[in-house]
Write a structure and sequence with these properties.
single chain; alpha+beta; Phosphorylase Kinase, domain 1; Aminoglycoside 3'-phosphotransferase, Chain: A, domain 2; 2 domains; five-stranded antiparallel β-sheet; 13 helices; Kinase-like_dom_sf; transferase activity; Aminoglycoside_PTrfase; Aminoglycoside phosphotransferase family protein; transferase
Length: about 350
Amino acid sequence: MYSTKIDEVIQNFDFKGDLRSYDKYGSGHINDTYLVRFTGGNYILQRINHEIFKVPEQLQENIALVTEFIGDKIEAQGGDRYRQTLTLVKTISGENFYRDSLGLYWRAYIFIDDAVSYNLVKNPDDFYQSALAFGNFQYQLSDFPVEKLHYTIPKFHHTPTRFDSFIKAVEADKKDRVKLVQDEINFILERKAFTNLLWDYHEEGKLPLRVTHNDTKLNNVLIDARTGEGLCVVDLDTVMPGFTLDDFGDSIRFGATTGAEDERDLSKVNFDLELYSVYVKGYLEGCQGTLTDLEIELFPEGAKMMTLECGIRFLMDYLEGDTYFKIAYDDHNLVRARTQFKLVADMEENWDAMKDVVNEYL
């Protein structure tokens, strides 16, 4: 239903050439995405989900600031800004987004050709390249004034708040599903104290806020199809102030696993210590010395925190009737939650080994 005004939308962006075609593109959970083909080049067109991102104007301001900052650095170093970072396409009136006659918000990017992304780690080098890319993203923005950025989703990775919201969802039990997930609820309750750890360090002045991506899944890095090297970080909706541990941890929970995020058979879902080690190496190389010793020391905590938090979010969405994440079947979010909790349990079993890996860099 959201594509009913797409012709109107296309006409209001400053695309080059004549329209050839457009098709649905990608598999994102949140926004609707199209590949739009013009004689002058290809573009990505996205409807911004303003039910989740309540102030799209601020979201787009964040993206414009960050991509222009990175693009200028790339250009100064002799690189290709149109290939190594996202480039927004302005509307014909010069704006970074378009609001259509239905009140829906849209944005467009120049399409990056000869690039691929992966939903699951196929080999360690792919994961290493994504680590380099996200680490480099952190490095490129290490001197960006973080206070200029808006919080596109307030307290997005504030795990204590996520825990409190989850408890309210359990108490409300809108869909009468609590009775079906008591084991999963208990799993979360047993780790309540842990959810405060990172924010306690921050309040003590020990953990800084940085510009963070906040959705560092493997499939949010474009890999150069010709060289196999990490090329460009995409999906910048959640770029805002946060902990580098959020970015590191989200990558581990998504990539250092032997199973998909929605694998029903939990025997196929295991924490992969080798991939974790590969990512630590690549991420630190990409960051180029910008992280503190405490941030590096807390990599295992970051991995566990983001995995637990994501499981909490999936389970809460299941309890509330699947209003946030797109689902393909009734218990999709429950399946997703269970994979995250399996990974948390595996991390806990491998805790000493995870610590040993990071200690090599301290």
